[in-house]
Task: structure prediction
Amino acid sequence: MAKRIEASNVSSYYGNFKAIDGISMTVEPKTITALIGPSGCGKSTFLRSINRMHEVLPNARIEGRLTIDDQNIYDPDVDVTAVRRLIGMVFQRPNPFPTMSIYENVVAGLKLNGVKKKSVLDDAAEQSLKSANLWNEVKDRLNRPGAGLSGGQQQRLCIARTIAVEPQVVLMDEPCSALDPISTLAIEDLMFKLKDRFTIIIVTHNMQQAARVSDKTGFFSIDKTGDPGRLIEYDDTQKIFSNPSEKKTEDYITGRFG
Amino acid sequence: MTLLQNEASDVVMTPDNIRTRKLPVAYNIGIAVAALAIAAAIVFPTGIGNWVLVVVLGVVFYLIGLQVIAGRIEGPRAARNRMWQAAIYCACVLAILPLASVVWTLVSKGVSRLDGDFFGSSMNNIGARDPNGGAYHAIIGTLEQVGIAALMAVPLGVLGAIYLVEYGKGKFAGTVRFFVDVMTGIPSIVAGLFVLSFWVLIVSPWFNNGTPQFSGFAASLALTVLMLPTIVRSTEEMLRLVPGPLREGAYALGVPKWKTIVKVVLPTALPGIVTGVMLAIARAAGETAPVLLVAGGAAAINFDPFSGGQQSLSLFVYQQAADASRYAPARAWTAALTLVALVLVLTIAAKLLARRSSLR
Result:
């Protein structure tokens, strides 16, 4: 079910600007990996490279190899929509589709990819909303617009939407940065629950969050503005936060830098 | 010194007193009455104008008086606020006045021929001395011509806008956008001439044993040329307003690009697109020159838009207004009223439809 992600020597470019340089890391199935680091250090760029969302932006391109269970997702004969069906993504700001109801939002991925059977859709909607800890709050108003929910609920709706298509890997790009502490806690609980089924990679600015939820942590940094981001250290979360091997990592997590 | 002390000397607000005096409503009305009275006293004895000038001068005096007197009572900042607010209301009324006047004229003059005969008969065999006769043929013509034009222009325009926003990159898209902008400024008579020389004189003989012929379809073509740039530009603007994260959200679910556009981007932009399309349709329905050039107009009912001259409501208005018969002006007014009502009904229907499909 959940798959292993392996990046070897991945560099991303926006036009001539090199955003990240030579990232190599392996993410094991059914783990939570946190990516931390100062703003502009390429965490999000790397995350977006993993499901080829990077190339949505004009002039963006990638060098290196990114494999999911030994299949290179950047091979020329790979269908980009297939990659994105395998590797789902939750964005920083909740982005429910404004013209769709809560129900339609959750099953949007299935419906737009050709699933028509009502029973399958109903099932998927209920299961995903339950997995996203949202079912009890919205079960009586599934036909109301998704945009009418609170910020935290909208983000959980987007998570439900993402897991409804049964991806192997879920990428989260600062999913809690627009949320209050209680909604954040709800989403962290949710991540633990989802870990049994999915491989999760999360970008976060909140180091406590990284320490709380993740099994492994990668620390990204840049030397100065305009330089490409690099992966400084990648290790067990426990080790990164208690006894990092790199001086830079220690400086960052103790708050002396960045 | 705090900011509060910037006020007038006798309405000083201090950190301990943030209340101020307000201009009583009676004063306000008093200024208005006085302003009108002064204006009347200037205008009427000198004989330089009628009541319209009194109102205009009155408004100017009112605004000045308001500024001066409110400034004494409330302080200059509050007075400026009051004066500009009043000025904005006046501008708003001024903008609505012509519209209201048009509607009033249309209704009052158009109502006299608002009868079954007008909507049930054509001008066939109606002479200068016949009081009856109607616009049935013109209504059919307008509906067919504008309908066919919309059928051609809306899909083309929306698809063109989708190309420009979602796919178009580089020189070709820039060229397309430039020519769409140029087309927006084409005078309708030029569109009519283009269709006359191209369709009526060159293409239509192929279908009519070598003789050129007028047709409602030719009018539709000319209207399409006029509608297309409006629809492309307005749809383009609306599609650009759809936030990028929505598209990314759909891509991240493994939804292909074309389906993202059809199922996420277009529905989100739909109300705005409908507004743009209705503006284009309303403009096309009011066009006279191209219809005159390529459909020719007709007195009789012609259901077939592909063969023979056809009437349209705006052309009917033009011809009746220029007609010597003393019964013609009434017909022109009623036809104009019908045209406005038609566009209004279409617009309201389209807006309701768009709203129903986007919100629950």
